[in-house]
Specification:
The structure holds 2 protein chains of 2 kinds. By secondary structure, chain A is α/β, with parallel strands linked by helices. Chain A contains 22 helices and 10 strands. Chain A has a 10-stranded mixed sheet with strand order 5-4-3-6-2-7-1-8-9-10. In chain A, strand 8, helix 6 and strand 9 form a beta-alpha-beta unit. In chain A, helix 1 packs parallel to helix 16, helix 3 packs parallel to helix 9 and helix 21 runs antiparallel to helix 22. Chain A starts with 7 loop residues before the first helix and ends with a helix. By secondary structure, chain B is of the alpha/beta class. In chain B, strands 4-3-5-2-6-1-7-8-9 form a 9-stranded mixed sheet, with helices on both faces. The N and C termini of chain B lie close together (10 Å). Classes of the chains: A alpha/beta, B alpha/beta.
Chain lengths: 494, 629
């Protein structure tokens, strides 16, 4: 970006180095080293939400492997980190005492960990290292649900996400909601931080999870879920805390990612039935377990099918096979993935989190440093604080985030189309240039440059218009900087 | 005390032991006989009392409140129960006002307005949906805001919708109340549902089989259990969730751990609706609704019918007791002419006692007046204390946050918090008023029992008079607390709580300016932010106080009115009873005085008549006592 020789990440690293010098030899020194190391690690994405929202299932779907154990009852009771590594390894970090390695086995795909006599309440968090392409992009954190009957588990995930002024362990949050619920908002409130912006929808995406259950298994359930998600995403109280809401049928996505030939064959048997018989068979879960014994599926197989697909998944998959929309296991997996909504979520994750991971990571680190310099000032920490302040106050990406959250909070007012334009331009719908300019993904350079120049002129006019209100005018200046940045990147001229 | 009732053993013919058949026809028969006796002895005052009992017996109303989290299938459950789409079901939009589904010869619907006096307005059955669901499809948090601020001429708030349809299930007086699911169990709406449940006969808690009970749900259930005697959990959507059996096990275990002995009934509304449409008994059995229907009609409906029958039989027994006393006095005078003068003298003395019983100086009346005064001030004090705590908490919360960010959550929190405090305050009022009512009844019974036994003392063949009076006390005790409940029901019904919602005076906590941060130094930004924040905090604190003031004012008035109403109700009730006693005594006095003038032959004839009457009355009383159990 013009006028700024060093990237945000470099500046963050610089100020962390200086701070490490000041705090060398104190306990804070170790923390600062960790903070600096975090800048080079993958983005940390926490999966949070109410109990039984489908957090572990979604995590598995995103990783593309069944790692986190899932169950009908409450299952995840310990905060678990899944990160990429060379070896398969599970480490427990007890609340008191040294970390220790744990034995584990893979049962039915999911990792089964032997806590070696530790009670879940004694474990602060588990660390699972797993060689995985997906985990190379992001370290995933699975959390126990809030509203859990074991209050301890709830409290721990609260601590993880609402770390107060301390370093926030996660850079970004996928917040799962099963349908809007007052408790959820209470939870989201915990994300509000106090400095860079307030409240902060910049690092949270809402996921309307278990979306297939919204229509209680009707084939048009996902359409219903999309409508609800869209409605929620425009709700002011949701907009204040998450960037957008995406519907995902986690179970379907997880199963699609790990679909086997055997399962496809079993589904084919159902698809081969006349429609009426198939409908009668799939009327209820109990019926599917018992009816048509001549079908050639054992009750165990049926139970497993239901467990893997859910009633909606079986209905959908058998319909797809019957109509020959999909014929092979690969095709079926593709269709199920598509319909589960996980593809959309991946795209949103990419544009909102991964493409601005440097900003998010720097933000986490700088926030933590800011807290440190204020709570534990040392001789020499003053200049560090000043530099920090300079970065936070001047870095353009932070300006964008600030305007974005201000818009989301309803602080910036104006015509809806103007606000939509502004939101896109500052990266509210994604960081990619074409998204900012609201162009198709394939738009070429001249096209992008033309649109950027046009946007620049448009916003300059708005900034100079005496009738523009103060807030919008300030926001307009940020938009102008964004346009200039885009043009500089495209190598264009003004 | 029941043992006393079995004097001339078996004389009643009614089964004395537990599994009595249906008490209702027995009670109806007893009431009919009692009415005939009242007519024969020219006691319209007693007849009026029996008439009231007869009416409530003929038209029982059994309220069952259906409560649960957002989107658990409450409306579907109600629809499936009655086999018709009454309550709108939608993937997204939630029920926003309570819907009362009851029996009627023709499908009909009415809007209920909470005005003074309550108003009803008929609407087309097809239009129910438009009134019941949330106005605009917005999130629950913004939904609460109530009427749009812009339209000044907003029509009166709809407090509920009543739908009548012809259904056998409902014919017994069952009224299903579908409650709003907006806001979740922690919201003010939930408190309102609880208040409604405290007046209802049963509560059906709806939770779906997608997951085990959550903390919030269990907390709610515990509260519900305290407010309402009969509670069941319906585990819905069992057709869709393969693991519903496991969820049921988990739920049952959670309930056991919380010491909540509630039945968990797995149901599938979808299967039931299909079964009703296709008239498929097999499918109906699969739906699990048979259990729920049995619960509603036998445990809930049967319980209410039994209670009403018991109450009616009670009234019959009480009426008999008075008539008997009257005849026994006359009989004493007739049987021994030498003692007649003494009987007359005694009855005259009793007359003074009865007069005293009616007077304001009577002990029960004093107890009532003093009790209501004390209660009024205690309730008021309790409310003030509670509201003060809420304000304190709100202040602390405001201190810790910037209202610009948290105000909407704050509003929801405040409404819910206040609603729950009101509920607690109201529970206190209910319990204390019931206690007072019992105390007043105790005093009245003590005094009137004395009168009654005095009336009967000269009886030459005393029929365990003392013991009977005592038995009568037992019977009375059962219905005494009820007296206060009647008054409470007419005063409350939970409607108040629903009205409270949306009373929050909308304040605008708009931001005073954004991105000064972009043009100001960081220090300046911090100071400016702080200044604005302080401003907003003050504004928020004031808004909280205004709201709490308003709520205290309305609630305080409501409590005082309710107590006044209870006082009036109790006073009228016991004054009426005293008046009845007075008439009984006067009748006895007249006949005793007359008996002196009769000839020997007349006397003997009259004695025979009286003995016959007494035998009939005693039999009726015994029958009634047996029904009342």
């Amino acid at each position: 970006v013009s006028g700024q020789p060093r990237s945000l990440l470099e500046r963050a690293r610089g100020v962390l180095d200086r701070a490490a010098g000041v705090y060398r030899g104190t306990p804070a020194g170790d923390r600062l080293r960790e903070l600096a190391a975090r800048l080079d690690e993958p983005l940390r994405v926490a999966v949070a939400g109410r109990v039984k929202a489908g957090k572990s299932t979604l995590l598995n779907a995103l990783v593309g492997e069944r790692l986190a154990p899932t169950d009908a009852g409450e299952c995840t009771r310990i905060v678990t980190w899944y990160r990429d590594g060379h070896t398969y390894q599970v480490t427990a970090h007890p609340v008191t005492g040294e970390p220790r390695q744990l034995r584990f086995q893979r049962e039915d795909g999911a990792i089964e960990i032997d806590l070696a006599g530790l009670a879940p309440a004694e474990v602060d968090h588990l660390d699972v290292t797993w060689p995985s392409q997906a985990l190379r992009t992001a370290t995933m954190v699975d959390t126990p649900g809030i509203g859990s009957l074991s209050a301890d588990a709830s409290r721990r995930s609260w601590e993880l996400l609402a770390a107060g002024d301390e370093e926030a362990p996660a850079d970004a949050v996928l917040y799962l909601m099963r349908h809007l619920h007052s408790n959820d908002l209470e939870f989201l409130r915990a994300f509000h931080d106090t400095e860079v912006s307030q409240p902060n929808p910049v690092n949270a995406i809402g996921v309307l999870s278990r979306a297939d259950e919204i229509g209680v298994g009707r084939l048009d359930s996902m359409a219903s879920a999309r409508r609800i998600a869209a409605r929620m995403a425009t709700d002011p109280s949701v907009r204040r805390v998450v960037q957008t809401v995406v519907p995902v049928a986690g179970l379907l996505a997880e199963t699609a990612a790990t679909l086997t030939e055997a399962e496809t064959a079993q589904l084919r048997t159902i698809a081969a039935l006349p429609v009426r018989e198939a409908d009668a068979l799939l009327l209820s879960a109990d019926r599917f377990g018992q009816l048509l014994p001549e079908l050639g599926l054992t009750s165990l197989e049926r139970e497993q099918l239901l467990g893997r697909f859910g009633l909606f998944g079986v209905r959908l998959a058998s319909t797809l096979l019957r109509r020959q929309v999909a014929t092979t296991a690969t095709e079926l997996a593709g269709h199920l993935t598509e319909r589960s909504g996980i593809t959309d979520l991946r795209e949103v994750l990419g544009s909102l989190f991964f493409e601005r991971r440097d900003v998010l990571k720097s933000r986490s680190a700088l926030l933590a440093l800011d807290a440190l310099t204020r709570t534990e000032p040392l001789p020499g920490s003053g200049p560090v604080a000043a530099e920090l302040e300079e970065i936070i106050a001047s870095a353009h990406p932070f300006h964008e985030l600030r305007v974005l959250s201000a818009m989301r909070a309803g602080w910036v007012t104006g015509k809806p189309e103007v606000l939509a334009d502004l939101e896109h331009l500052i990266g509210g719908a994604g960081n990619a240039t074409h998204l900012r300019l609201r162009l198709a993904a394939g738009a070429d350079k001249p096209e992008l440059a033309a649109a950027a120049a046009e946007a620049l002129a448009r916003w300059q006019r708005r900034a100079e218009n005496p009738l523009t209100n103060h807030e919008l005018m300030v926001a307009a200046r940020v938009a102008i900087r964004s346009c200039e940045g885009i043009l500089a990147e495209l190598g264009g001229h003004r | 005390m029941i043992t006393v009732a079995s004097q001339p053993a078996g004389a009643t013919g009614a089964p004395a032991s537990a599994p009595a058949p249906d008490p209702v026809p027995l009670a109806v028969a007893a009431v009919e006989l009692g009415l005939r006796a009242c007519a024969a002895y020219d006691r319209p005052d007693l007849a009026a009392r029996l008439g009231a009992a007869k009416r409530s017996l003929a038209d029982p109303v059994v309220h069952v409140v259906v409560v649960g989290e957002f989107k658990q299938g409450k409306s579907s459950l109600v629809n499936a129960l009655v086999g018709a789409t009454i309550c709108p079901v939608d993937d997204d939009i939630a029920t926003a006002v309570p819907t009362y589904v009851r029996h009627g010869p023709e499908p009909a619907a009415e809007l209920l307005f909470d005005e003074d006096p309550p108003r009803r307005e008929p609407i087309a059955v097809e239009d129910v949906r438009g009134w019941v669901v949330e106005r605009a499809p917005t999130a629950d948090l913004s939904e609460r805001r109530g009427p749009a601020a812009g339209s000044a001429a907003e029509p009166a708030r709809v407090a509920g919708v009543e739908v009548r349809i012809p259904r056998k299930l409902l014919a017994g007086g069952l009224v299903l109340v579908d409650t709003p699911g907006v806001g979740g169990l922690g919201s003010a709406h939930a408190a309102a549902s609880l208040a409604a449940a405290s007046m209802a006969d049963a509560l059906v808690f709806v939770t779906d089989a997608s997951q085990e009970l959550t903390r919030g749900e269990l907390d709610f259930l515990r509260q519900a259990r305290e407010m309402c005697g009969t509670v069941a959990c319906a585990l819905t959507k069992t057709d869709f969730y393969p693991y519903w059996r496991k969820i049921r096990e988990l739920d049952t275990a959670h309930l056991r751990r919380e010491r909540l002995a509630l039945p968990v009934l797995p149901v599938s509304s979808m299967l039931r609706s299909r079964a009703v449409a296709a008239n498929d008994p097999g499918l109906n059995a699969e739906s699990g609704f048979a259990e729920l229907v049995r619960f509603l009609s036998e445990q809930v409906g049967g319980g209410v019918a039994g209670r009403l029958a018991g109450h009616a039989a009670d009234e019959v027994a009480a009426v008999c007791r008075q008539l008997e006393a009257q005849f026994e006095a006359e009989r004493a005078a007739l049987a021994d002419p030498s003692a007649a003068q003494q009987v007359v003298a005694q009855l005259t003395a009793v007359k003074d006692r009865v007069e005293a019983l009616k007077a304001a100086a009577a002990r029960w009346s004093q107890t009532l007046t003093d009790g209501v005064t004390d209660l009024s001030s205690d309730i008021d004090h309790d409310l003030r204390g509670r509201i003060r705590t809420v304000i304190q908490e709100a202040d602390d919360a405001i201190e810790a946050t910037d209202p610009a960010d948290t105000w909407s959550e704050m509003e929801a929190w405040l409404e819910a918090r206040v609603a729950h405090e009101l509920l607690a305050n109201y529970t206190l009022l209910r319990d204390r008023a019931t206690g007072l009512s019992e105390e007043v009844g105790e005093h009245f019974r003590a005094a009137s029992g004395e009168v009654l036994s005095r009336l009967a003392v000269p009886n030459p063949t005393p029929m365990l008079a003392g013991a009977q009076v005592e038995h009568k006390l037992e019977l009375d005790k059962m219905k005494v607390g009820k007296q206060a409940m009647v008054a409470l029901k007419s005063a409350y019904g939970g409607a108040l709580m629903f009205v409270m919602l949306g009373a929050m005076t909308g304040i605008s906590l708009g931001p005073l300016g954004l991105g000064i941060g972009l043009v100001m130094g960081r220090k300046g930004l911090r100071d400016e932010k702080k200044r604005q924040r302080t401003l907003r905090q003050n504004q928020a604190r004031n808004a909280v106080r205004r709201y709490c003031d308003e709520v205290s004012f309305v609630m305080g008035k409501h409590s005082r009115d309710t107590l006044r109403k209870i006082q009036r109700e109790l006073r009228d009730h016991y004054t009426g009873l005293a008046e009845e006693l007075n008439r009984s005594n006067a009748a006895a006095l007249t006949s005793a005085a007359e008996s002196v003038k009769r000839t020997q032959a007349e006397r003997e004839k009259r004695l025979k008549d009286i003995d016959a009457e007494l035998t009939r009355l005693r039999k009726l009383r015994q029958d009634a006592t047996a029904v009342a159990g």
